[in-house]
Every structure is written in C-alpha cells, then in structure tokens.
Write a structure and sequence with these properties.
Chains A, B: Keywords: FAD, Flavoprotein, Oxidoreductase. The structure is a homodimer. By secondary structure, chain A is α+β, with helices and mostly antiparallel strands. Among the domains of chain A are: about 120 residues, 2-Layer Sandwich (Uridine Diphospho-n-acetylenolpyruvylglucosamine Reductase, domain 3), CATH 3.30.465; about 120 residues, 2-Layer Sandwich (Alpha-Beta Plaits), CATH 3.30.70; about 90 residues, Alpha-Beta Plaits (2-Layer Sandwich). Helices cover about 35% and strands about 20% of the residues of chain A. Chain A is built from 18 helices and 16 strands. In chain A, strands 13-10-12-11-15-16-14 form a 7-stranded antiparallel sheet, with helices on both faces. Chain A has a 5-stranded antiparallel sheet with strand order 5-6-9-7-8. In chain A, strand 15 and strand 16 form a beta hairpin. In chain A, helix 11 packs across helix 14. The longest helix of chain A has 17 residues. Chain A is globular and about 75 Å long. The N terminus of chain A is likely disordered. At the A-B interface, helix 8, strand 8, helix 10, helix 12 and helix 18 of A face helix 8, strand 8, helix 10, helix 12 and helix 18 of B. The complex binds flavin-adenine dinucleotide (2 copies). One flavin-adenine dinucleotide binds next to strand 3, helix 6 and strand 9 of chain B.
C-alpha cells in the first residue's frame, strides 16, 4: 500500500513558501570543514554529501530531501547515518557549536512535512541504528534502536507471542523512533491506547549532544517529572530519539471482522455503544466510512463485501474488528451481537457481513484501508486529519461540501468529492477533499474554513499526523496562547540555539 | 481499609527534620492582610485560619497539616477551599505576588509527605470542587472537578456501564486530582495502563494564576507538545489541577480470581508467561505474596482460601484476577488454565483455589489486600515501594533480610519480618520491613542500602507513591543528573518563584 512515488505539487510548495517558512538566518549550512569533521567520526558509508571530497550525486540526496507526499522539498547538502548513540551525540554537539540545523529523519513517511529540511539543514537519518537491544518475553518489554522499522519489530515479536501496540499503513517504512516522535496513532489505538501509555523509556540525544538516558524497562516509575513524555509527539524538535523501550501486548489468538451498513448516520453512536458493551475487551477497531468513501473504495476495487442490493439506501458503513484469546468465544460474541442487531425492533443496521476466513477478513479491511488509494486515483486530495466529536462527523463533511458548493467549487473540474472516513472509535475523522487538481482557489476555500469548524467543536486540527512544517500556522486553532507560550519556553530549555528541526511544530 | 488514625512517629519526624527540609526563606507566611484578601474573594465556609478575625481552633487545621501515615506535620495557619477555578486562580495569583508557598491538597492520602506543608505554607484544598462536569456514555469520557473522590466517580460511572481506569485502597478518600498529581497506579494498571494514557485533558491553574485550559475530550490530539503529561505525577509542584478529563473503559460483566501456591519463587516468571498467554485480554491482575506476607495475612484473619496442608512447602503465592465480557467464557478459560497447570508433568504450582462466588472472591483478595493491615498489627513498618525486575523480587527481599541479619538486627525486639508482596504484573514490589519500633539504627541499616539495591537493578525508588518530601534525597538513585537538571529547569519555567509545593519532589 505504501508507494514512494514523489508527486510534487507546485501549488502546495508555493503555499508553503508563501507562508514564509524558512530556516532561521542564524543557522549555518554544512561546509567542507564540517564534513571533514563528520568524516573523522563516522564510517564512510554513513556519510552522503554533495560537498567535496564526498561528492555524492544529487539523486542520492533526493530521497532524504523530499517528503512522502511530494509536497515538501528540502535542500540538505549532507545526510549522516550514524550507527551508535555516541556518534549521534558527537554530530549533534558539533552542530550545536557550529549552529547547524538538524532534521532527524526516520522512515520519512510523515504526512506534514516534518521529516525534510525547510532549507539547508543537515539530515540525520536513523536508518543505520536498527538493532533490537533486548526483549523480555515475560513482561513483553522490547528495547530497540530508534531506526528499527515498525514491520521488522512486528515480525520480531510475533514468534514470541506478542504484537506491537501500534499498526499503521506505513509500517513497512516508518521507524519506531519516528512513530514515537510523531506519537503515531493508527489502527490499534482503540485497543492498546496511545504511545504515551505504552512507551516505557527513551534514550534521547539532546540538542547540545548530551545523552539523556531514560531507557528504563519499568512499567511504574514515579520519580520526578516524566520527561520522556515531552519527546513523544515533539516531532524531533527537542532532541533525537535513539532508542525506545515499549510495552508489547500478548498476541491475540484470533481476529475477526464485520462490515455493517447503516441506514442513517444517527445510528453510528448507538451502534458504537452497543458494540462496546457487547464485545467489551475483544473490540479492537470501530472504523467509519461515509457513503462516498465506501462507493469510491468499491469503484476502485478495494475489497468487496456487501451485496449491492443490500446496501441500497445505506448512508454509511462501520467496520468492527475483534481480537481475542479464543476463536470460538470471540465468534460467539460477534454472532450474538449481529443477531441482536438484525432482530431488533428498530434495527440500527441494514445488513452486515462477517468474515469467514482470512481472505474475507482482508477484503473487509480492504474496503476501509483502500479509501486513501481510491481517492488518489480519482484526483488530488486535500487531506485533513482531525479530531471532532463523533456525533459531528457527518456535519463536518456536509458543512465542508455545502461551503464548497456555495463557492461554486463542487463541479467535476474543481472539487469532485468530499469524503469522510476514519477511526470512529477514537473520534478521528479523515476529511478528504478530492479535486481535479490542486488550486489556490480550493485551498483558500478550505482554509481557514475547516480549521474554524474544528475549533468550533473544540477539536484537534491534527489528530495523529502532527504539525510538522505544514500546520504551524494552524496550531492556534487547537492550542491557546498560554499553551503555545509554554511550548516555546520548553523548546528554549532544550534547544536554546534552535538547531533541532527548525521551523517545525512552533513558528 | 482506610484508617485516618494519625500515628506520629517521632523518629520519622526527626529524620525528616535532620535532612534539613524546610520552606525556603524567600517565602512568606500568610498574614492577616492576606487573610482579609482571601475573605474578600471566598465564601466564609471556604476559609479556615488560626489568624484573626477567623480564629479557627487548631483542631480544624490539624487534619490538613498531618499526613496519613502521621509521619509528616506541617504548620499552615490557613486552609482555603475554593469552589471554582476562578477562585483558585485568584488565590494563586495573590500568593505568587506575595511569595506565599502553596500546598495543593486532595484527599491527603499520599504516602510520601507531599500533601502537607513542610513549614507554614498555605494549604489549598480541592475538597469543595467536587462536581462531575460531563460524561459521554458513548465514548466513555468523564470530565470532573479535581476534588471528586475516586469512589464517588466509580459510583457515578457504574450505572452507566463504565469503570474508572484506576482503583486503589485509598479510593474512599483520595481525589481524582490527587490521583493524577501522583500518577497513581493501583490495582488496575495491568489491565488499563497508566494515567499517562488514560488522562485526556487537564485544567490547571499555573503558579502565576493563569488558567491553562487543556481540558479536551479528544482521544487523539497531536498539536504540539503534550503539556498535560508534565502535571501527571508532578505532585503539585508545577500547578494546581482543577479538572480532569479521563477515559473510562466499559465495565466488565464478570470478574473472577484464583489464588495459587508455588513451590519455588523461580516458577513465578514462567507462570506469569503462561497466564498472560492463556488469559490474554481478560487478565486483570497478577499479584505476588511471599510466604511471610501470606502467613501474616492468614495469621491476622485477612481472608482465607487455602488448606494448610496443601500449602506446606509453598515458597510464595500468586493471585490472578480475570475480568471480561461474559462469565461462562471467562470461567472456561480460567478452569482450562488451572487444569493445565495442575496436570503438567512438572507443575508450576502446588495447588490453587478459584473463587466460586462473590464472598470467596472478596476473601481471596482479602489475603492480598490485607497484608498492609497485618503488618501494621505486627509492628512498625518501613515501607519501600520499588520497581525492580520481577526475577529479582525474591533476591531483593532476601538481600535486605541478610543485610539486617549481618547487622544483628533480625531479632524480635528489632526487625521482626522482612516481607515482599506487590503488583507482580507491573514489576512493582512492596518491600516492607516490620520492626518492633522505628529506630535510627534500623533506618540507617535500610538506607541507602535498599536504594542502592534498586539502583543496581536499574529500578525505581518509587514505583507509584512518588517522591513528596520523603524521598527528594533518593531521587538520584533512579534519575541521573541530566534528568534532574532538566526537571529543575522545567520547574523554573512554571514556577520561577518556587511557591508551588516547596520542598517536594526536587530538593
Ligand atoms: C501510507 C501511510 C499511512 C499512514 N498511517 C498513519 C496512521 O494510521 N496513523 C498515524 O499516526 N500516522 C500515519 N502515517 C504518518 C506516518 O507514517 C507516521 O507519522 C510515522 O509515525 C512516521 O514515522 P517515520 O519513521 O516515517 O518518521 P519521519 O517521517 O521520518 O519523521 C516524522 C517526524 O518525526 C521526526 N523524527 C523521525 N525520527 C525521529 C527520531 N528518531 N528522533 C526524533 N525525531 C524523529 C522527524 O523529524 C519528523 O518531524 C501514515 C503515513 C503513510 C505514508
Ligand atoms: C490505604 C492506601 C492505599 C493506597 N494505595 C495506593 C496504590 O495502590 N497505588 C498508588 O499509586 N497509591 C496508593 N496510595 C497513595 C495515595 O492514595 C495516592 O497517591 C493518591 O493518588 C493520592 O490522592 P489524594 O487525593 O489523597 O492526594 P493527596 O495525598 O492530597 O496529595 C498527594 C500529592 O498530590 C498533590 N495534589 C493533590 N491534589 C492535587 C491537585 N488537585 N493539583 C495538584 N496537586 C495535587 C499534593 O500536593 C501531593 O503532593 C495509597 C494510599 C493509602 C492511604
């Protein structure tokens, strides 16, 4: 599902420049002198640079300068890939003294332009720090280098009967350090909670090169302020995470899922309540697709589950996943639930299909996970990853569509679809506006309109993707001046010279 | 179980004084002028003061000056019990300008002397802020004033099919604000994780009186640094929590438990692994008692479950609790597990008893929960609440006993028992040294011995109770100089005048 195609959007790049985001003038570019120093502490294979004497070709630097969406492009002349925390520390210490900006980079799958330079900062890639340090199979505690790829860790703990507490579409490329730095949510949050709960310890290189060792494997440790929490979701602006200690839950023995068609959106909330009560601890996902999202997924062959005649008139769809310790128990619970739903006097659902085997399981998930791809096949997507009360999901989508309509923009050569889907169980709506092309007119119609809508509902302008370079101007819609002021003071403590991921998160 | 008997220990109070803990000279006592100001903004019932014109009798102030253990005694002349966040803000603003120290106080059940003044600071009690602000029965999100008592909130959400994500012995008195301020762990941590994961938002009055509104009800919100995390476990040194937004899980429909007798301590880890795998998502507690703890509990009539002949030779005991969505499923899993354990070729357990009804359920828990009381009936307890690897639980207890033995202190008129029990599932050992009386000789033999032992195992000198006034000198055994330095800088940002709970957490 993860494609690394770099679709550069000129409009987006322009919008980005026009907001005047650029590396602070107080920071310096990497020079040949710096490079000579780096070469003295790192293996040759750890250094990519267009500077002499290394003279790497540009296309070796490109993948580190361009973000996953192709919307943001940096201008780093040097990428370093240290292999140990000591090497990271030495690099950072040097950069701090020389006032060189640093962008910590994981798998570069971030969706807000946080992982590439805004100017000519140095890119410090964690890709070469990719060893598991330890795994305690009894407590389920994994300690791994920050550069370990999420999929690799998933594969590592699976035969030891554990799962990673997070899962996301980018798992084949994203790194655990990047996940922690972005406080990634993903598909298992409903079940296993956020990384603020499951990350037990971190090793971090602070912006002056000091190694902060909080790499504990303790589940409980109430000794002073919990500093590691600050790095979770700081998007590399407070330091470089070099290792992560994380709690992995026991692997479920069985998983199942069902797709449900609902006649009205209003039924989503009562349905969620019933499902939560009846499935209780085995409920692991409750995902939402509006009619448009479902139709687009089906149109583009992303999974197939329901009969066309049966879903006539359905206003939206819900995917429920269970995972638990014993297949027959879980199936019994799920079947009982479905029976109850279908036989109710005023049923909340039109119909529902339970997966009977792994391939059906995949094809039901395909409907939900395929929405992104389906939309990208239809046109250019303006993506908003917001948190709002579940009850307002439909209102938010409708209000956006109405607003575009009132601007005369709902037409085949402008906006084709306004789509809503997402992690309903977490109040996280992916509001996507699918257009024929990226244009300034559409961009202006959408912002600040959507951010103001989110603010009205006391929501979050970024549920899981973060702020990066893309949303610094929108932070104030979700955080007040007091909070932003405190954030800036905290940034000042850790990074007084502002070298760490400049221009990201805070303006 | 919660007794408010105030057992003052002179030795402990002396030890406390001899460490030179006192309110900084830069802080002022509350004067009649201040009192007049407070009286102008608060209802008369919100003010207790020995100063004129209020002239409250001392015994009205005593309960606020003395901690639960009777080890710490403050000297506040004034206690304020504001009713709104605005009142709190006005009080704090005044105190900040006048440099008056403030101790935020919840239920005053804290076990490290954090909730009472070390000198003549003002006590700000949250007791009058005790309303539920909202509850969303679909998402399970509760927003409550900080002064709500944990038991009251448990009772509030129960008929709405939810449970609080934490439970502890002090629940009849402790407040949700105090729980968050201490990052309380308790009996449900294994199942529902830590407050860093389940607290969604906070309203906090900062030390300059500013109201920080992060009282969101969003499960996901990646917009900048997660500031609220800093207040979780800060023990009132960074600000006053006035409201909490917290995720409550759906109530389990059935709970059960079993007590298991183990021939050797070495079996605990393999047993934990088997139990985790087989009970998976319904496992809700895995508690450990060593032989001494068990025998003391039985001796003092704290629950009864196992036949004497059957537990002969058992070295330790484990209590397993399940809670899940369907009784027959859960019982089946538990019975299958027991059968497997008993019929194994080399069984990990000698015997086990499953509760058959609510009263047996209580009596099995009684064995575990009654240890504290049993110990207090035997003598004076030196209590260490530490996190160490589970594999070293027995070593830690044995090493402490051996050490006391080598000092000639293991005798009926000095140390009677060294006892280990605790939340095995969380790596949290309660190491209790039960003595005939508190003496300096024993205290000196125990510290820094135990802290060094913890440090050797990279453990935590305070798993859940915090640092308070009692352990500021021991913080460095679990946190290095870099971490402590950063904590002090953070304290400096929030509370430059050092008025908020002075002398606590950081020296
Ligand atoms: C197909 C697809 C699906 C996705 N699905 C989800 C989803 O469901 N939920 C979700 O939350 N996100 C999702 N994302 C976004 C993204 O994958 C996550 O944010 C991921 O956690 C980023 O990890 P990364 O290693 O690629 O980090 P990068 O993209 O390299 O970096 C992201 C940010 O973290 C910083 N950073 C990276 N590594 C470190 C480090 N070691 N130390 C300090 N800072 C560091 C960077 O500077 C940057 O600011 C998805 C992305 C894609 C492409
Ligand atoms: C019988 C018994 C059993 C216990 N069991 C456990 C257990 O299993 N697990 C566990 O973790 N603890 C346990 N404790 C310790 C204690 O109950 C908890 O720490 C509890 O969370 C404290 O809550 P409280 O309201 O009584 O806070 P207090 O004792 O009043 O205060 C504790 C600390 O928090 C600060 N504080 C209180 N309220 C606020 C506020 N609104 N804003 C800012 N700061 C505030 C105080 O200044 C103080 O530093 C137990 C205590 C007893 C007496």
């Amino acid at each position: 599902m993860l494609s690394l195609a770099l679709r550069t959007s000129r409009t987006a790049l322009n919008a980005y420049r026009s907001r005047g985001i650029h590396a602070p003038a107080s920071l310096n570019a990497v020079t040949e002198t710096d490079l000579a120093h780096f070469a003295s502490i790192l293996a040759p294979s750890s250094v990519i640079s267009s500077l002499a004497p290394v003279n790497s070709p540009t296309d070796e630097l490109d993948p580190f300068n361009q973000d996953w969406m192709g919307r943001f492009k940096g201008n780093a002349n040097t990428v370093l890939k240290p292999k140990t925390v000591q090497e990271v520390s030495q690099i950072v210490k040097w950069c701090n003294e020389r006032r060189i900006g640093i962008v910590p980079q994981g798998g570069n799958t971030g969706l807000v332009g946080g992982s590439v330079p805004i100017g000519n900062e140095l890119v410090l890639s964690l890709a070469n720090m990719n060893k598991v340090r330890s795994f305690d199979p009894v407590a389920g505690i994994l300690v791994a280098d920050a550069g370990c790829i999420l999929q690799a860790l998933t594969d590592y703990v699976a035969p030891l009967d554990h799962v990673m507490p997070l899962d996301l579409g980018a798992k084949g490329s994203c790194q655990i350090g990047g996940n922690v730095a972005t406080n990634a949510g993903g598909l298992r949050l409903l079940r296993y909670g956020s990384l603020h709960g499951s990350v037990l310890g971190l090793e971090v290189v602070l912006p002056d090169g000091t190694i902060l060792d909080q790499l504990t494997t303790l589940r409980k440790d109430n000794t002073g302020y919990d500093l590691k929490q600050l790095f979770i979701g700081a998007e590399g602006t407070l330091g470089i995470i070099t290792a992560v200690s994380i709690l992995t839950p026991p692997a479920p023995q069985a998983t199942s899922n069902v797709i449900l068609a609902l006649p009205h959106f209003d039924n989503v909330l009562p349905l969620f309540q019933t499902v939560k009560r009846d499935l209780s601890e085995i409920l692991s996902a409750f995902e939402f697709l509006d009619r448009t999202a479902y139709d687009l997924a089906v149109k583009h062959g992303q999974g197939k589950a329901l009969d066309e005649s049966e879903v006539e008139g359905a206003q939206c769809f819900v995917l429920v996943e269970t995972s638990g310790g014993r297949r027959e128990h879980d199936e019994e619970k799920l079947n009982d639930l479905l029976e109850k739903l279908l036989e109710a006097d005023e049923p909340l659902i039109n119909t529902g299909v339970v997966s009977q085997n792994p391939s059906q399981f995949e094809s039901i998930w395909g409907l939900r996970e395929g929405v992104t791809e389906a939309i990208s096949k239809e046109g250019k997507a303006y993506k908003y990853d917001i948190s709002v009360p579940v009850a307002t999901f439909k209102d938010c989508v409708d209000a956006t569509r109405d607003h575009l309509e009132s601007k005369g923009l709902m037409r085949p050569d402008a906006v084709k679809y306004v789509v809503g889907y997402g992690h309903c169980g977490d109040g996280n709506l992916h509001l996507n506006v699918c257009a024929a092309a990226y244009t300034q007119e559409i961009a202006d119609a959408l912002e600040p309109f959507i951010y103001e809508l989110v603010q009205k509902h006391r929501g979050s302008v970024s549920a899981e993707h973060g702020i990066g370079a893309m949303k610094t101007h929108a932070l104030h819609y979700s955080k007040d001046a007091v909070s932003i002021g405190l954030m800036k003071q905290i940034k000042g403590i850790f990074d007084p010279n502002g070298i760490m991921n400049p221009g990201k998160v805070l303006e």
